[in-house]
Amino acid sequence: MSIEQITGRYVTVEAAGRRQRIYFEEAGQGRPVLCLHTAGSDTRQWRHILNDPEITRGNRIIAFDMPWHGKSLPPEGFMTEEYLLTTEAYMETVLAVVRGLGLDRPVLAGVSMGGRIALQLAVHHPDAFSGFLAIEASDFQPAWYDIDWFQRPDAHGGEMGAALVSTNISPHAPEAERANTLWMFMQSGPGVFRGDLSFYTRDDSLVGQLHRIDTARTPVHFIVGAYDFTCTPEDARRTADQVAGATLAVMDEVGHFPMSEHPEAFRPFFVEGLDRMP
Amino acid sequence: MMERMRRIQAMLDAAPHLHRLGALFSETVLIKVDGDEFYLVFDKGRIDRVVEGPSKKTPYRFGFITDGAALEEFWTATPAPGLHDIFAMVKIGRAEIVGDMLLLVRNLRFFKEVLALPRARREAVE
């Protein structure tokens, strides 16, 4: 028998004019590192980093479920709403969690859409953070697919979403972790992946803004997997090239969900990224 | 390649979890490799028969068109980036999907797993 070191609690915050009851997990002590999950998934993606005794020896690793995701319920009245994530609501939610948990300028580590919002926050709210890890992150990715595929009455959106994102999982990933990673997508609420993709594939407001990031104040480090065909290494390079002073590392045997699909291969890159942060 | 298609048929017969996933899938799918046509006739999640082309008379719902070298790499234990997944193959220009895309997407996990059945197991090559 073993009991993991991760603890989970709830914090209620006001964000985007709504009361949001947000589930978060944390482990460790020291420098706060706030971690953001990808679209259509939840905090469980960070389970290996949260359980890493060496990383958590000097870092307080915190991850939270965005509203509508994982154990964070949608806001009151959701049954008649169409969930469509926006840049403003996403930034407000992250900032509300930082305030709600009393975090003093955490490192922000975001993956995929979490990486996108990390870059938006680096542009618009750098004072709230000490540095940014932009993982599988780019300035903009239009969809080659129809996001409406993922909420239909005649098919299981979660299974379809999982099958779609399996494109971005490395064949080097352990089979068990590939399955766990896909399971989270299968469990996603109806329309949630679609609503996240609306933000990720239609909001191009970051384009042309990246030059505003001052990496002397808040360093930005990009990490991208070679098997990521949503945000390819070329997409990450194109984005990093727009941020003066940013650094980038490419993981040869990893895809779009590094911390979840292939934790062993991701770990050294995450540690290196943390080492680059204040 | 016909032998490969028959191998997929046999491996699918031995994969009960795919019979569950494909229980509502009874359609004909074209696999076109280096110009050679193979029509996989599915019946409730199994391949009832493989019909070799060319044929202009065989109706199919969607088709996957690629080249033999790409497909052989796809079936290795750890394919190179881009050749590890059918949608990635399309993205890098090594494959094309034709026909009813939505039908494919509604059955995407089933079809991806069926097409990957000949993939070498990593444990066997390491």
From TrEMBL, chain A:
Gene3D superfamilies linked: alpha/beta hydrolase (3.40.50.1820)
SUPFAM superfamilies, A to Z: alpha/beta-Hydrolases
Assigned keywords, A-Z: Hydrolase
Domain AB hydrolase-1: 33-266
A GO molecular-function descriptor: hydrolase activity
InterPro entries per record: AB_hydrolase_1 (IPR000073), AB_hydrolase_fold (IPR029058), AB_hydrolase_sf (IPR050266)
PANTHER family linked: MONOACYLGLYCEROL LIPASE (PTHR43798)
Descriptive protein name: Putative hydrolase
Species in which this protein is naturally found: Pseudooceanicola batsensis (strain ATCC BAA-863 / DSM 15984 / KCTC 12145 / HTCC2597) (Oceanicola batsensis)
UniProtKB/TrEMBL annotation, chain B:
Organism: Pseudooceanicola batsensis (strain ATCC BAA-863 / DSM 15984 / KCTC 12145 / HTCC2597)
Protein name stated in the entry: SCP2 domain-containing protein
Species classification: Bacteria, Pseudomonadati, Pseudomonadota, Alphaproteobacteria, Rhodobacterales
The organism's place on the tree of life at top rank: Bacteria
